[in-house]
Design goal:
This protein has twelve helices and 15 strands. Strands 3, 4, 5, 6, 7, 14 and 15 form a seven-stranded mixed beta sheet that branches. A six-stranded parallel beta sheet has the order 10-9-8-11-12-13, sandwiched between helices. It has a two-stranded antiparallel ribbon with strand order 1-2.
Length: 331
């Protein structure tokens, strides 16, 4: 099969178009003939050598795919049937690596049927962002209808999906974005307010837009010096969820605010979590989000589709920060 490998840590041009043997599904796994692969920030970090795959995962980058189930481990036919899946079925899946290839193995529990009406391109853009959003915004932060969510980077792949999920759950949504065009895009997707963070202080604006009350939940992909400002604009019993540290891993905080307002700071990384943990998220998505995708209430937001052989260009585009929504590779 064709695949894209990281020849050595470095810039986007270290990605290589290569031939690899077909992977073989282990017990509890299927082999997916890949039609499309999502591109995500962790892929870029892995390419740079700062986010290695967990033990036992493929060394190839790629955390989400869509395609057709081509085979299953012989001992797992019953498990496949119990999951409501079958050989020959179109699925999308969250994987711990190996997605940049024409074939990929995936745990059965992390596979979901392609939502009704979606192409493989659209389906490949869903797993990584939706598993992340559900795990952090819904499960960890407990966002409820009527609450206010602030999303840092509201037009990123994570951001556009967090925005739509939060609105579907009945929350008010504020987002930050780096340009007027991105702010306009977020508003078109349903954000209640968009803050141009290069021109406005997001914490001041968040307090102004909530009449001084503050926001209930913040989804943060920046960390660093953002954390102190985020704590200052959280409402009482507010929750800050950190899912990336693009602005740095160290932060200074006002501990008194945490005591006074009963604030929670939490965070998580999904890649190394167990199959059982991810499978439980998959079932929650299938129940609560998949019908909303089928109805059109939640939809993929695709910025660009590139041939898989041009993965280096896809990474360069992601690092440019010019994209709104997801970047997808087509096989």
């Amino acid at each position: 099969m064709h695949a894209v490998e990281i020849s050595q840590p470095g810039a986007a041009d270290v990605l290589r178009w290569v031939q690899r043997p077909l992977p073989v599904p282990a017990p509890g796994e299927v082999l997916i003939r890949v039609a499309a692969s999502g591109v995500n920030r962790p892929d870029v970090l892995q390419r740079k050598g700062v986010y290695p795959p967990p033990p036992g995962a493929s060394d190839l980058p790629g955390l989400e795919v869509a395609g057709v189930i081509e085979a299953v481990h012989p001992d797992s036919l019953a498990e496949l049937a119990e999951a409501g899946l079958a050989i020959g079925q179109r699925v999308c899946a969250l994987v711990s690596g190996g997605g940049y290839a024409q074939a990929c193995v995936a745990p059965i529990g992390q596979c979901l049927p392609v939502p009704q009406g979606l192409t493989d391109i659209g389906a490949a853009s869903l797993p990584e962002v939706l598993f992340t959003v559900w795990s952090n915004v819904v499960d960890r932060a407990g966002l409820k209808a009527g609450e206010t969510l602030l999303i840092q980077g509201g037009t990123s792949g994570i951001g556009v999906m967090a925005l739509q999920v939060a609105k579907a759950l009945g929350a008010k949504v504020l987002v930050t974005a780096g340009s007027a065009a991105k702010c306009e895009a977020a508003l078109r997707l349903g954000a209640d307010h968009a803050i141009a963070y290069r021109e406005q202080d997001f914490s001041t604006e968040a307090l102004r837009l909530t009449d001084g009350r503050g926001v209930d939940v913040i989804l943060d992909m920046v960390a660093g010096d953002y954390v102190a400002r985020e704590l200052s604009c959280l409402a009482e019993d507010g929750r800050l969820v950190i899912i990336a540290v693009q602005g740095g891993s160290k932060a200074s905080i006002h501990a008194g605010l945490i005591l006074q307002r009963r604030l929670v700071i939490t965070g998580s990384a999904l890649r190394a979590r167990s199959v059982a943990f991810k499978s439980a998220i998959a079932q929650a998505l299938k129940q609560h989000i998949w019908p909303r995708i089928a109805s059109g209430q939640i939809r993929p937001v695709i910025h660009a589709v590139l041939p898989a052989s041009k993965a280096a260009e896809a990474h360069a585009l992601m690092e440019s920060g010019q994209h709104i929504g997801k970047i997808v590779l087509a096989w």
